[in-house]
């Protein structure tokens, strides 16, 4: 079998480990050959496909980013040619199947291609950990580790200057990174998109930390909005109406300073959270996902996606992968909120 692999959407630590896991298993156990599709769906639309022999994936599990490149191109947008164009390029390279590694957008395209008869298997990826069809996605653990280390570092400078520090982390729709990094870093407030709170409440936590002699630390997810007004929401969207990195933190910091009189600084972690080497947890999960994708291909489970359930890897329908967002449930935030202030 000749299998095409692509990585699409935002990059994420662990993508290379998936590629390595798939190629190693496919080559060794099944004698399969591999093709690298460059820059996600763009490579299929523009016929940018390269051989991906086993020696090319050597040592890849510890390397961040993706050796195949990525883009947000969709074969179904504009005059890209849709499933017909994808089938044409696949035929030109005698490609029997595709392993598509990506988040919600990528997996939606994968499902649409499957519906049009393309043999395809998905591998979920997102640092946000917001896909409900899998317990965890690789990249999340790395992002949380980077954010936690940053919170630890910001704490010492905040303490030295008796300042409040607002740390903005990624999380456009969900607050998993904020929640975990906030808990791990001992934040005095964790603000997530799922639970709007008032500015009064935020300032109460900040002042309570200050009154106990602490440097108040607020971790905020980029998609957070205040309950009592749209001042943050208005300033925080980009030209596409998406939360803008740095928008929430930059808007919130001055509000806290104005309201509490505590000097406040803002740090936006942004793409630092997606860069560099994956943690060991993410390398293991990504490698297992890659190997499991090969099992799914061998069993011709087209239209499915590999998924972590407890400690086991299973396959689930691609449709279920793209229908529901895994949000932070209220009780998980309440558990953490007991420690705020
Ligand atoms: O979905 C993953 C994510 O990292 C979000 O947390 C963030 O909002 C977004 O991607 C950033 O995307 P881009 O790299 O296109 O700026």
From TrEMBL:
<feature type="binding site">
    <location>
        <begin position="103"/>
        <end position="106"/>
    </location>
    <ligand>
        <name>ATP</name>
    </ligand>
</feature>
<comment type="subunit">
    <text>Homodimer or homotetramer.</text>
</comment>
<protein>
    <recommendedName>
        <fullName>ATP-dependent 6-phosphofructokinase</fullName>
        <ecNumber>2.7.1.11</ecNumber>
    </recommendedName>
</protein>
<dbReference type="GO" id="GO:0047334">
    <property type="term" value="F:diphosphate-fructose-6-phosphate 1-phosphotransferase activity"/>
</dbReference>
<dbReference type="GO" id="GO:0030388">
    <property type="term" value="P:fructose 1,6-bisphosphate metabolic process"/>
</dbReference>
<feature type="binding site">
    <location>
        <position position="104"/>
    </location>
    <ligand>
        <name>Mg(2+)</name>
    </ligand>
</feature>
<feature type="binding site" description="in other chain">
    <location>
        <position position="222"/>
    </location>
    <ligand>
        <name>substrate</name>
    </ligand>
</feature>
<keyword id="KW-0547">Nucleotide-binding</keyword>
<feature type="active site" description="Proton acceptor">
    <location>
        <position position="128"/>
    </location>
</feature>
<dbReference type="InterPro" id="IPR012829">
    <property type="entry name" value="Phosphofructokinase_III"/>
</dbReference>
<dbReference type="GO" id="GO:0016208">
    <property type="term" value="F:AMP binding"/>
</dbReference>
<keyword id="KW-0460">Magnesium</keyword>
<dbReference type="GO" id="GO:0070095">
    <property type="term" value="F:fructose-6-phosphate binding"/>
</dbReference>
<feature type="binding site">
    <location>
        <position position="265"/>
    </location>
    <ligand>
        <name>substrate</name>
    </ligand>
</feature>
<dbReference type="InterPro" id="IPR022953">
    <property type="entry name" value="ATP_PFK"/>
</dbReference>
<dbReference type="GO" id="GO:0048029">
    <property type="term" value="F:monosaccharide binding"/>
</dbReference>
<dbReference type="GO" id="GO:0046872">
    <property type="term" value="F:metal ion binding"/>
</dbReference>
<dbReference type="GO" id="GO:0003872">
    <property type="term" value="F:6-phosphofructokinase activity"/>
</dbReference>
<feature type="binding site" description="in other chain">
    <location>
        <begin position="271"/>
        <end position="274"/>
    </location>
    <ligand>
        <name>substrate</name>
    </ligand>
</feature>
<dbReference type="GO" id="GO:0005945">
    <property type="term" value="C:6-phosphofructokinase complex"/>
</dbReference>
<keyword id="KW-0324">Glycolysis</keyword>
<keyword id="KW-0479">Metal-binding</keyword>
<dbReference type="GO" id="GO:0042802">
    <property type="term" value="F:identical protein binding"/>
</dbReference>
<feature type="domain" description="Phosphofructokinase">
    <location>
        <begin position="2"/>
        <end position="297"/>
    </location>
</feature>
<dbReference type="GO" id="GO:0061621">
    <property type="term" value="P:canonical glycolysis"/>
</dbReference>
<comment type="pathway">
    <text>Carbohydrate degradation; glycolysis; D-glyceraldehyde 3-phosphate and glycerone phosphate from D-glucose: step 3/4.</text>
</comment>
<dbReference type="InterPro" id="IPR000023">
    <property type="entry name" value="Phosphofructokinase_dom"/>
</dbReference>
<comment type="similarity">
    <text>Belongs to the phosphofructokinase type A (PFKA) family. Mixed-substrate PFK group III subfamily.</text>
</comment>
<keyword id="KW-0963">Cytoplasm</keyword>
<dbReference type="InterPro" id="IPR035966">
    <property type="entry name" value="PKF_sf"/>
</dbReference>
<feature type="binding site">
    <location>
        <position position="163"/>
    </location>
    <ligand>
        <name>substrate</name>
    </ligand>
</feature>
<dbReference type="InterPro" id="IPR015912">
    <property type="entry name" value="Phosphofructokinase_CS"/>
</dbReference>
<keyword id="KW-0067">ATP-binding</keyword>
<comment type="function">
    <text>Catalyzes the phosphorylation of D-fructose 6-phosphate to fructose 1,6-bisphosphate by ATP, the first committing step of glycolysis.</text>
</comment>
<feature type="site" description="Important for substrate specificity; cannot use PPi as phosphoryl donor">
    <location>
        <position position="105"/>
    </location>
</feature>
<feature type="binding site" description="in other chain">
    <location>
        <begin position="170"/>
        <end position="172"/>
    </location>
    <ligand>
        <name>substrate</name>
    </ligand>
</feature>
<feature type="binding site" description="in other chain">
    <location>
        <begin position="126"/>
        <end position="128"/>
    </location>
    <ligand>
        <name>substrate</name>
    </ligand>
</feature>
<keyword id="KW-0808">Transferase</keyword>
<dbReference type="GO" id="GO:0005524">
    <property type="term" value="F:ATP binding"/>
</dbReference>
<dbReference type="Pfam" id="PF00365">
    <property type="entry name" value="PFK"/>
</dbReference>
<dbReference type="InterPro" id="IPR012003">
    <property type="entry name" value="ATP_PFK_prok-type"/>
</dbReference>
<feature type="binding site">
    <location>
        <position position="10"/>
    </location>
    <ligand>
        <name>ATP</name>
    </ligand>
</feature>
